[in-house]
Structure formats: structure tokens, C-alpha cells
Amino acid sequence: MLSCGGFSYEKIIVENLKYKYPDTDQLALNDVSFEVEEGEVIGIVGQNSAGKSSLCLALTGLIPHFFNGAYGGKVLIDGIEVKTSTITDLSQKAGLVFDNPFTQMTASKYTVYDEIAFGLENIGVSREEMIERVDWSLKMMGIENIKDKNPFDLSGGQMQRVAIASVIAMRPEILVLDEPTSQLDPQASEEVFRVIQQLSQEGITIVIAEHKMEKLASFTDRILLLYEGKQIDFDTPQKVFSRDDLHDYGVVPPIFTTYCKAMGMKNKKTNTYPVTLAEVSSLLGGENNEWNKS
Amino acid sequence: MKTKSMWSFRLSTAALVLIPIAIGINYIGKTIAAGLKLPLWLDSLGTILSSMLAGPIVGGLSGIINNIIYGITLDPVSTVYAITSGVIGIVVGALAYKGWVNNFAKALLLGLVVGAIAATVSTPLNMIFWEGQTGNVWGDALYAYILSQNGPIWLASFLDSIVVDLPDKLISVLLCFFIFKGLPKNVKRLYQNNQRFEEL
Amino acid sequence: MTLYVKQDSLIHEIDPITKVIYAFVAALLPYILPSHTVALIVLVISIMLLVVGKVFRKIIPLIGLSLFLIVSLVIIQGIFRPDNVTPLFHFGPIIFYKEGLSYGLLLMLRVINLLCAFGVLILTTKPDDLIQSFIQKGMSPRIGYVIGSVLQLIPQMSATIATIKDAQRSRGLETEGSLLVRIKAFLPLIGPVIMNSLISTRERSIALEVRGFNAKQKKTFLHEVHTYKYAKVIQAVLILIFIFAILWRIFL
């Protein structure tokens, strides 16, 4: 389909998005607007019920098509308007992974290999291409060794990587992850973060809602801060985590930022606090020290 | 909310996902009842619950598929009763939709109706396949008694069934009624496929 | 959850649909033609197929499940069948009659035959192959999902039950004792499983939707169909036998 003049470099455009779940009085999303460029990694932060999950569902079309309720504003995914599209069509543009590894398994396939092929069978991908895509997904997630196992016999971390593999096999250009490590142990979380970063290096645009701020600070380009459904900020991790009012929104900044704040260590050029260990050590050990005590 | 017919075959994904869960609940109920040595089957809790939640089509499908799957995996004899299970699902689904699960008294009545219908549907099946017997100790004892009194086989068979089905279905429906009442609203609305989103 | 036994045999090679047709025709023949001979012939054929399929031993527990029904059929018919006239033997005051015992024996053969006929299908066919064959024959893939999912979820839910049982017991729930005690234990055991599994349907639905579950396109399959050279011939013969049996019953 040719779009005349509608071409945009932005992979995701959200304009004045409002949403209310059925049988509720409060807006779960209240006037959210932002744009994401191709290949960016975006972190969504905020306390519980700030609207993080709702936003993830809205980017993948489950809001409004699965949840119904009341919907306003506009979401464009790679030029396609969510409101008038379908979940199936959107699934090939923006994939969704969420927190519970167990419920993300279809529960109808007996091997990991078949599990990953499930979506491809549904959208009618040819057999040859299906095998090629499943093999690619297995390799990307580093789970070739478990391809013949029953999905329900896996550990949570393995299951979650199977879930991601199943979604990226659909070849979306955007991957939306809603707290993908919240039900995993630290080691499994590490592995999942590692594969997410690898997907980012493949050029996939990533949107991730997460509570682990140190992680987000280390690999996201921008952070979207939500509070009670409203968009509070959308900026670099340094800018967002340096906000003095962060605690008012129920967000605890990365531990490095908290320390540097307490010690008053600030980057004079950008007027922000460091958010990662690398930034802190460049402050402490670097010769051209751009970080100074204020 | 009740704009679309309860008889629509266009099931939502959630309604479809409910069917295997319902069949799983049937199995779990049966296993626990047997484990506790209860004198009841309690093997249709899932079918009944899914009917209350998602209507007669989902309920009927849960019942039929339930027995076919037991038939091809655990116990071929159960295939014979696929019709009975299907009818239980349809009856509960349709009557629940008409408000028969609104209060305890109505649910009690629903349980009795379901038990009677289950026995009525099973009787001809039992007549065809095993000369009217059920394989249940108490039921078959009654069957033998009726025959010894020169009663007709169909009556012996029906009573054989009803001794088994009536208490079982009555208790099952009541248990499901309490569970159904306790479910959160967002779970109950999940299986209706007749909604649209509105503009803000 | 499956009774399928992985083996290398002639019967395993036969395609699922042919075996389904066999199961139904073989199970129903003794009902259409009510004679001991027919029931016995079909039963022997089924048993031979089980032996060739290297799964004969697996049919025994399956028959065991229906043992009470089988025994009860012979005894009750033998004593109480209305057209009983010729006493054969007796235990004290209980008289067994020739007619009833003969009829009970036929019923018994029918039940065992039904179990064996389906045994041929169940024990030698992988459930996924069976489901895929039906989808390719025109069954809705959505129903295919439901069946596949049941077989995957039941062992899962059974495992949950075991966990809950332990947890409840450690919290003092009594699962043994008088009937009332046992009845009271039922709901605390099953309640949590029911709640959790119902709540899980929302997330599972989402997981399916984002993987094209509602796609309008024609579905493709990862695995190629399992074909069998003689499928058409065997199916035709089975169906002919079935029709012949019905005609025989009606006209002769």
C-alpha cells in the first residue's frame, strides 16, 4: 500500500490517547502523546496502575479490540491506525510479551518448536519459511537445545524466552514487553534482558515496561514516565531519573542516581545525575572529568 | 449487554480458551471426588460453570468435547455419554441466561431440572449400549430390584440413572452457583462476545 | 495426557482417519448385528490388530476401568432378565438363567469389543496427528486448538492439585474421616484451582490473539500430513461392511 505524504520515520505515533476499561470510572490512560523512532529502545516507568500495562496493550491493539471499553485519540503503528486495524494484522507489526511465562504458552503444542510455529501456522506462512523463521527465533533466543521439550516442562526463564521467540517469529518490527522479568529469578532476568538487547541490535524497535530501573537506565534511549494514566515526562534516562519529584510518582531512580544525588555529584554540562555504573566510574576515574561536585 | 443472541456460534477467543479449562475442571473435580471417596461423580463442574459464564454453545461444546476426549484418552465408555454432557451444557447455559442462577432457590430448581434431564437423556443410551444398566452399584441394585418386581426395563433403567444423576447434578449445580457468584466481574464479562468499544 | 504408545508397527503406520473409521465400525457392528458370533469375530480382529500394533498389554487396564460394568451386566441379566425361563445353576436362592446369561455374555462381548476397537485407535495414534488430520478434513482449527489444549492442560492441572493438597493438609485441612469431613474438604481443594484457571483464561486469550489466532487466512501446518498408501481402500472396505451390516439387519 502506497501512502501519499503519510510516510513517517516514526515507528510509533501516539496522539492524545485516552482509555477507560469497561465497568470502571477512571481513565487508565489519560491524554498520552509521544513518538518513537525506528530502532529506539523506550522504557515505560511508573508505579502499579500508572498505565504501563494499558499502554503496552494499546500499542498492540488489544486495547481497544480485546478489552473494549471507551477509547479516544490515535495510535499509529508503522503507519497503521490501531483503532481501525485488527489484532492479527498488528501482531505482524508490533509483538507483545508480558510477565506471566506460563499463560503465554498456547497450551496446545507439545514441543517448543511447534509452540513457536503456532502463530506462523495461523497466519498462513509457507512451511519452508516457517521452518526458517522458527530456526532463526530459536537461535536469537539461544534456546536451540530445548526445541524438542514440552513447553510446560521448562523453567520460567526458558519459558519466557520461548514466549519471546514465538512473538519475534511473526517478524514484527516493534517488540512491546510488559514487565517481562517480574516473575523470574535474577539469573533468568539477566538472560531475558540480554536477548532483548540483542534484538535491539538487530534493529527491532523496543518498548519495555519495567521496574528494574538500573536495567532500564543501562540500555534505553528514552524513558516514558506515567502516573495515574497521565504522561509526566518523556526524555533521556538521565533527565527523567534526575527529576526531583520522581518519588511523588512512585518511582525509585537507579541506585547510582540516588547515591550521586545524595552526594551532589552532577554532570555540569547536562545538569543531570549519572544513571549507570559506567557513568559513575567515568566520573570518579576519568581524567577529563566532566562530572564535578557542585 | 444482551444484544446478541446467546446461540451465536461466533465465539470469542476467551470463550474458546474457557472450553479446555472447563474440561480440565471436570477432570479435577472427578479426581478429587474420587480421592475423597465421595459418593458422587462431580465430573461436570467445569461444563456447568462454563455454561453459566459463556452460554449454551460453549457449555454444550465443553460437554461433548469432554466426553469425546475422555473416550479417546482414558475411558472409551464415556464417549457414549457425550450427548448427555452436551445437553447438560446447553440446558444450564440457556437457563442461566434466562436468570436461573440469580438466587439460591432458582439454582436449586436448576439443579433438579438438570439432574432429571441428564437421567432422561442417558436412559436411551444405557438401553442401547448396556441394556439399561449404568455400572453404578446403587443404580444397578435398584435396576435389579425393579426387574425382580417385574417392572419394565425402561423404568428400571430410568430409575437406575436418576439415582446416580439427580443428587450428583444437584450438588454440582449448587457448587457452581456459589463459585459463579464469587467470581470477579471482569472475569464474568470476559466470555461475552457481544461488546464493542465506544469513542471517547 | 495420552494413552498413545510409541512403537514401530504396521498399525502405527496407518493414517489416523482410517483408524477412526475402524474404531467406529468395529465398535458398532455387534450392536447392529446382535449375535455372539459377530461380536466374537470383530473382537478377535481388534485383538489381533492390538497384538500387531505391539500394544495388547496396554488394553488390559483400559478394560479394567469398565470391569464393574462388565461383571454387573452378566450377573444382573443372568438373574433378572424378564425373558429368563431356563434355570442353569444357582447360588443358594439366587437362580441364574440360560437366556439372561447368554444375553449378558453378548453385552459383555460388545463392551470389551468397543474398548478394544477404540484401543486400536487410541493406543497407536498420536493425539496431535489425529487433531491435525481432522483439521485437514475440514474441522475448525479452533476446535482443534481446544482438543490439543485439553490434553496439555489436564496433566498441568493435576500437578496443581497435588501441590494444593499438600498445602491444604499442612494447614490442617482434613481429607480423611467421616463423609461430612470429606465433603467439607472438597471446596477448599478445588476452589483455588478453579479460580486460578478461570483467571488465566484472560492472559492466555491475549497470548493467542497476538499470535494470529483469529487470522482469516488459510492455516498452514508445520508438520506434513501422515499419509498411508492403502487408506482409501481400507476406508472403502470398512464403510461397505458397515452399510452391508445395516442392510442385513433391515432386510434379513
TrEMBL record, chain A:
It is a peripheral membrane protein. It comes from Caldibacillus thermoamylovorans. InterPro entries: AAA+_ATPase (IPR003593), ABC_transporter-like_ATP-bd (IPR003439), ABC_transporter-like_CS (IPR017871), ABC_transpr_CbiO/EcfA_su (IPR015856), ECF_ABC_transporter_ATP-bd (IPR050095), P-loop_NTPase (IPR027417). Belongs to the ABC transporter superfamily. Residues 12-253 form the ABC transporter domain. One of its GO terms (molecular function) is ATP binding. SMART domains: AAA. Keywords: ATP-binding, Cell membrane, Membrane, Nucleotide-binding, Translocase, Transport. It comes from the Bacteria. The keyword Plastid does not apply. GO terms for cellular component: ATP-binding cassette (ABC) transporter complex. SUPFAM superfamilies: P-loop containing nucleoside triphosphate hydrolases. It is found in: Cell membrane. Its main location: membrane. This is ABC transporter related protein. The keyword Electron transport does not apply.
Automatic annotation (TrEMBL), chain B:
The chain crosses the membrane at residues 48-68, 80-101, 107-130. It comes from Caldifermentibacillus hisashii. Keywords: Membrane, Transmembrane, Transmembrane helix. The keyword Transmembrane applies. It comes from the Bacteria. This is ECF transporter S component.
UniProtKB/TrEMBL annotation, chain C:
It is found in: Membrane. Keywords: Membrane, Transmembrane, Transmembrane helix. It is a multi-pass membrane protein. GO terms for cellular component: plasma membrane. The chain crosses the membrane at residues 20-52, 59-80, 100-123, 143-164, 179-199, 233-251. Its main location: membrane. InterPro entries: ABC/ECF_trnsptr_transmembrane. Signal peptide: none annotated. It holds the Pfam family CbiQ. PANTHER family: PROTEIN ABCI12, CHLOROPLASTIC. Coiled coil: none annotated. This is Transmembrane component STY3231 of energizing module of queuosine-regulated ECF transporter.
